[in-house]
Structures are given as structure tokens and as C-alpha cells.
Design goal:
SMP-30/Gluconolactonase/LRE-like region domain-containing protein; single chain; 6-blade_b-propeller_TolB-like; 5-stranded antiparallel sheet; mainly beta
């Protein structure tokens, strides 16, 4: 959480690397790897097909998606406003999201 990065571990080699993130903040461009900023990423879940990770970006009030193979990050949901309004994708609002889950449907 405190280093503002999403880290991955290769189980076979035990090598740890940064999948995405750099310093705290938020840049509004979709980008890969360390060109992206999170601000206290706290919750993470992997899609059922194993291709995408979804991250609760706590102080940016957004849900971000990461293509695991490339580290490419996009904003999946939330407009960055600290509020709790329902909506579709980028029009939804979150207030410090800290947990995330995926259901089969």
C-alpha cells in the first residue's frame, strides 16, 4: 500500500518486480508500467481468466485495471471524486475504495 506500486512475484524464480506504479499521485493518461501513478492501492483482485487485475486505488477514488501480461493500466471505474454515486464506468464515484471482488456473473 505505502509504496504506491503493484508488485508481482514469479513463483518459480522468486523474482519480485514492479508491474505498475511509481510514486504517489495520479496521472490521467492510460499507460504501462512505471508511467502510471497510484495513490495507496489497497485492494486487488484478478479476473477469472487470469488476464486482468483490478485495483482499488484508495486516494484516487477509482478502480484501475491492469493487463497482467503488459502492465498496461486504465481507469476502469470512478471519476476521481470522493463520493458514493452509482453510475456506469467513469461516471461512478467512490470514496476511498479499499476492497474489491469479482463475481461469476
Amino acid at each position: 500500500r505505502g509504496n504506491h506500486r503493484i508488485r508481482s512475484i514469479n513463483i518459480a524464480s522468486r523474482i519480485v518486480s514492479t508491474l505498475a506504479g511509481s510514486s504517489a499521485g495520479f496521472n490521467t493518461v492510460d499507460a504501462a508500467g512505471t508511467d502510471v501513478q497510484f495513490n495507496e492501492p489497497i485492494g486487488i483482485v484478478v479476473s477469472t481468466d487470469g488476464l486482468t487485475a483490478y485495483v482499488a486505488d484508495f486516494y484516487n477514488h477509482r478502480i484501475r485495471s491492469i493487463v497482467i501480461a503488459t502492465g498496461y493500466v486504465t481507469t476502469f471505474a470512478g471519476d476521481g471524486t470522493a463520493a458514493t454515486s452509482d453510475g456506469n464506468g467513469l461516471s461512478a464515484q467512490f470514496n476511498t475504495p479499499n476492497g474489491i471482488a469479482i463475481t461469476p456473473d
